[in-house]
């Protein structure tokens, strides 16, 4: 999409304004401060990584006339030492911790919000559904944001249509990354997402036409359907997620791609615990595989991040997790924990990719701060190398 098309869409949003009263957006400043220690032992490296980083994010927004508002957000990341490979510091003898020093514009947008429709133009944070295809990668210190236009409309009660045109993605590796393609990608991508919300769950149909103008082989068209729901069964809660999608080559991709995605995830909430079983399959044909380059990838396929790029033979991830809360006194039910296990195999060829344990504990701290301890232990079976990661984190958001 060129600038002319973008202007036409913007005028379309202005036309919607005449049909819907404006909803005001609060003025003011926001801030987020996050310190993190990340330690990595990767058997592919003789040295272990140790990264201590501090992230400060400052945002401002102001309501304008007739439902319009404007916003800006800056982000700075400082690193204490260089005993890790940030992607920008040249320390390639260490394992990667992609939290490079940075001072960047994270967001800068103009927004209109009406009663049943709205739109945002500029650099913005975007997330669709569970972040599997489009997300902001909020786990990393340098967030992923997008230049483009996004819009949404409530077509009827419970039925919401979302659209986004992406001109550029600003990736988590930062503006100083040694590899220019790791900094940002020029895009011409169209994202369409139609969600129906009912009493027991939601059904989402989506089409993502992703054109990467810097790496043609990354351009794909993805069509899919997602069903999530929950139902009370006595004192317990039964939940489910079912999803299927097909991905093909698009927009000059030199590779003939035709691969599928499946997700089956039942869950049970009872006696203060939530249990999940999952089977996620990203198809591969030995040459190309199902990819989600705009996703919040850290949230999927294990926290050790061994499968940020799906192997050519695809990925079959069978997992189980349990989570809950505990505590007493002032900490009653405020200590949140999760334990998860993954078994990784290829979709094609019968290859064993290894197993991984994950665990986390989140807890409140004085003065409005929150803490997090997180672990990942990946054991290889011929794919990559054994990797162990530890995170210690303290964070606070204002207001």
From TrEMBL:
Residue ranges occupied by any Alginate export domain in the UniProt entry: 31-266
Signal sequence region: 1-24
Keyword match Signal: yes
Pfam families: Alginate_exp
InterPro entries given in the database record: Alginate_export_dom, Porin_dom_sf
Keyword set, alphabetical order: Signal
Protein name in the entry: Alginate export domain-containing protein
Organism (species): Arenimonas metalli CF5-1
Taxonomic lineage from the root: Bacteria, Pseudomonadati, Pseudomonadota, Gammaproteobacteria, Lysobacterales
